[in-house]
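User: These chains co-purify. Model them together.
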Amino acid sequence: MFRRFVMVSALVLVAACGKKEQPAVTPTPVEAGGSVVNNDAANQQRIRDSIAAAEAARAAAVAAETLRAELVNELAATVHFDYDQYSIRLVDEALLTRKAAIMRANPNLRIRVVGHADERGSDEYNLALGMRRAVAAKDFLTRIGVEAGRIETASLGEEVPVDVGSNETAWAANRRAEFDVVAGGQMLVAPRN
Amino acid sequence: MKRLCPWLLALALLPIAAAMSSLAAQQDVVRLGITYRAGARPGVIVLAGPGLDSVRKIVERDLDYSDRFEMAFVADSVAPQQGDLNLGIWRQYGLGWAVELRAVTGGVEARLHDLAADSLRLRVQRGIDPAGTGPQRLGIHRLSDELVQAMTGEPGIAATRILFQRADAIWVVDADGANATKVSRGTGIAMSPAWGPDGQRIAFTEIRDNAGPIIIQNLVSGTRQTVPGTNGTGLSITPAFSPDGREMLYAASGEQGTDIMRVDIQRMCCATQLTVGRKLADNLSPAYSPDGRRIAFLSNRSGRMQVYLMDADGSSQRALSPGDAAAGGEAYVPDWSPDGQQIAYTRDITGGRQILIRDVGSGRATAVTSVGRNEDASWAPDSRHLVFKSDRGGSTQLWVLDLESSRIRQLTNMSGAARMPAWSPRLTGPVS
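Assistant: Joint model of the two components:
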């Protein structure tokens, strides 16, 4: 975005300086070095103030977007499961606790948990197992204060592996619950802690 | 297990000097190529007149795949049958039956000669297009089944088809492995196909947009219906039609666990919950007994997945094989044989996943596979053949096993896994 802005500015300048017989339509100049010079001091100050304000707003927007992206990433972080198990592993508890904190700080946020299984169980039992994994993740979140109505659950069984291999590494990667933001993710604030 | 196809190993090309009457008239001694190995089962040869070579090959294969005969295969080099048969030659080589196919106006005439009794057992004319392909082949398969019926007293299974899942869609293939065709039309992931007793309606789960309703599709008219109550949150999986086609069982999988439901699909209403797993157990993969009075299903209420039985109203729930849970290993996907005598299911046995047959009366169980990972057994209407998925050939494909002879053959050989097979009833009406 920023790069594109610079390129457009450069094009405008080239157009303005290079060919006087076809002057580009330019807005009120905002920088020294432009083709028009304004000598009114108060006006200059106003322009400087508005530039500062716009830059501050833009910086804030960039920071908010960066934070939002980080929070969405944390919400989307996948948890994994042991073979034929659906209990939340200790190693994933911090990750889920963080998701719950983000959800508590953003009451409009709604998520979906989709459970998955590796290829080893029966095809259809894996749908039920994937559902249990999604529900286990949901239950963990609701136990620490997230309203149940804000979390949808679904299962894709073994149908959508992230690793199509038939080995321990692939199976471990495929036994998982994935999280998506379904609503309220446009503006997010960080939990206080 | 001793395997698999003693046939193929023992095949011997026996050139037989024959003097079929028409050929003898040419004053030549012609060497006929046939392959035949005499065995305990009656020998059969199929002979065809001009233009019926492809029909002969289909009938030959159908009779072979019935696993009830020792086939005498006629080599491609053999000239078409002309004129009357010299039955004595075939009797001399120990054959029990000769099938004679002749083109007649509008179809094919089949004559079945009982060689031992020296009598004509069957003579029928059927409206078959000898060049028939696709669904047309079903007419030839029905003729094969009539011939099996006349020779053995029981109809064959050639006029049947097998539903299966491949690449997120439902497919159907003829019982001889021909005509694999995609039949589901929806988007999403279609799974767990089941046949209605009419052989026209099928049901399957269609997972899409985080829901998983059960779709009933008519293969002839193409209409699709969503089973009421299955289009909400959660998934509705493992559908099964009742033998009378009026009700359907399926498993509803959601936040309260996975439980078996019964729904009236004639009036499209009135779901009843048959199992109560709460969050403690999953119950799924129901299979009706052929009289519709009992249901076999899977449950992990005792820890591992095991096969359970219940009455059709959900009462009297008990383990099919109480010893299995203690013996270890999960069980998978039961199917009740059409004669009601046996339940096929799958168990993890040391080193593999094998198909077991449990005699409902005696409770005796027998493993019928021993090679590779096998699963999802479905009975043919003759209660002696099973189709199942297996990785024994490398990729996951469908295989057919004859329980009487232990002969096994590969049904599908497609790119990607073929799985979740369901064998149709005998198809008497139109199929597409």
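The two ends of chain A are 32 Å apart (CA to CA).
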